[in-house]
Design a protein that fits this description.
With 379 residues, the protein is an alpha/beta fold. The protein contains 11 helices and 12 strands. It folds into 2 domains: 131 residues, Aspartate Aminotransferase, domain 1, CATH 3.90.1150; 236 residues, Aspartate Aminotransferase, domain 2 (3-Layer(aba) Sandwich), CATH 3.40.640.10. Strands 2-8-7-6-5-3-4 form a 7-stranded mixed beta sheet, sandwiched between helices. The protein has a 3-stranded antiparallel beta sheet with strand order 9-10-12. Strands 1-11 form a two-stranded parallel sheet. Strand 3, helix 4 and strand 4 form a beta-alpha-beta unit. The protein is globular and about 70 Å long. The protein binds pyridoxal-5'-phosphate. Pyridoxal-5'-phosphate binds next to helix 3. InterPro entries: Aminotrans_V_dom, Aminotrans_V_PyrdxlP_BS, Cysteine_dSase, PyrdxlP-dep_Trfase, PyrdxlP-dep_Trfase_major, PyrdxlP-dep_Trfase_small. It is an enzyme of class 2 (transferase). GO terms for molecular function: cysteine desulfurase activity; iron-sulfur cluster binding; metal ion binding. Its cofactor is pyridoxal 5'-phosphate.
């Protein structure tokens, strides 16, 4: 029985080509990119190559890309960095109720500087309502942060519309695109965003590296001083990580479409199996079924989240109960709470997320194991 990994929303395995590209930088090419000797120089050039690949994947100029330690730092830098640079203009920030914890932590940090935060609710499909955003905007609003794709539900937020409103009002707009990047062709040259977060380990790159796109007219206060990354993020660069991230971005650009056509097929196949073997009243799809193909959030009300995760784990199938950060505790996640679902549905929500390496065979086995678990519980 092979392992079936269906938790790509939490993290993804490093692509073999990425690994190959990284190893020299853990060995003979160990130089510090800031050094003037040739050991340093041969570590500097690949960083700039990686920046080109990430920039290309987002349709922007490499100078707009700042490498960070991951999605969390990019979110934090975008929000705290932009807010502190803008504090003379106003102290009101709007985020959605379903943001990643990194965004929640960042706005919490800003409360000590007297920033006020509005948390936008979402509708029953897990999507921010534009009318509510319009009502939340004040004269002193300086920043809006709404994620592109939700990590637990896979719902796609109306980023274009939110960005248009923000531009019209002269408010900065940040989007956490960590879960959008693996699936969608993001074009920041046309999308009305000022700051955009991506992470390497959600696209088959290594952990501990990510990037923040910063629009050319936007000033941020760096959180970590130092002259690397054009004075926007200090510290000796994570050379192997950045090189790996660049390679992962390059591979992603070439293979994204094919990969997600497959994921859509997986999602449809699973749902079909459950419809046939359990019946439509035995499960509920949480969030919008038209969300990204990579993520499926679903509840089987007869089996609670924890029981389902543990039972599948015994069959070597890895899924999650929403975000990885909330796992380990059986509490209903903040995102699921925001949907205001009936208790049995909320308490049985699971997230299945597809990626590189999954096969239709695996998907069918996983779907059938779930059927067995549900049937055992129902008896
Ligand atoms: C994983 C994730 C993050 C955090 O990224 P790290 O690189 O793990 O710090 C942020 N936002 C979303 C939506 C994520 O899925």
């Amino acid at each position: 029985m092979n392992d079936i990994y269906l938790d790509h929303g939490a993290t993804t395995p490093v692509h073999p080509k990425v690994f190959e590209k990284m190893t020299p930088f853990l060995q003979e090419r160990f130089g510090n990119p800031s050094s003037l000797h040739s050991k340093g120089k041969i570590a500097k050039i690949p960083i700039e190559d990686a920046r080109v690949y990430v920039a290309k994947a987002l349709h922007t100029h490499p100078t707009r890309i700042v490498f960070t330690s991951g999605g969390t730092e990019s979110d934090y830098t975008a929000i705290v960095g932009a807010a502190l640079a803008q504090r003379e203009k106003g102290k009101h920030i709007i985020i959605s109720e379903i943001e990643h914890s990194a965004v929640f932590e960042a706005v919490d940090f800003l409360k000590q500087f007297d920033f006020e935060i509005t948390y936008l609710p979402v509708n029953s499909q897990g999507i921010v309502e534009i009318d509510q955003l319009k009502q939340a905007i004040r004269n002193d609003t300086i920043l809006i942060s709404v994620m592109y794709v939700n990590n637990e539900l896979g719902t796609i937020q109306p980023i274009q519309q939110i960005g248009d409103i923000a531009r019209e009002k002269g408010i900065l707009f940040h989007t956490d695109a960590v879960q959008a990047f693996p699936v969608m062709d993001i074009d920041v040259s046309t999308l009305p965003v000022d700051l955009l977060t991506v992470s390497s380990h959600k696209i088959n790159g290594p952990k501990g590296v990510g990037a923040l796109y910063i629009h050319k007219d936007v000033k941020i206060r760096p959180l970590i001083g130092g002259n690397q990354e054009r004075n926007r993020r200090g510290g000796t660069e994570n050379v192997p990580g950045i090189v790996g991230f660049g390679e992962a971005a390059k591979i992603l650009t070439e293979t994204r479409e094919e990969k997600w056509q497959k994921a859509q097929q997986f999602k449809n196949r699973m749902i079909k199996i459950w419809k046939e073997k359990l019946g439509e009243e035995e499960f509920f799809i949480n969030g919008d079924l038209h969300g990204v193909p990579s993520i499926l959030n679903i509840s089987f009300p007869s089996v609670d989240t924890q029981t389902m995760i543990v039972s599948l784990d015994m069959k070597k199938i890895a899924i999650s109960g929403g975000s990885a950060c909330a796992a380990g505790s059986i509490d209903v996640t903040r995102v699921i709470k925001a949907l205001h679902l009936p208790d049995p549905i909320a308490k049985s929500a699971i997230r299945i997320s597809f990626g590189y390496g999954n096969t239709l065979e695996d998907i069918e086995r996983a779907a059938k194991e779930i059927v067995n678990i549900v049937n055992r519980k129902r008896k």
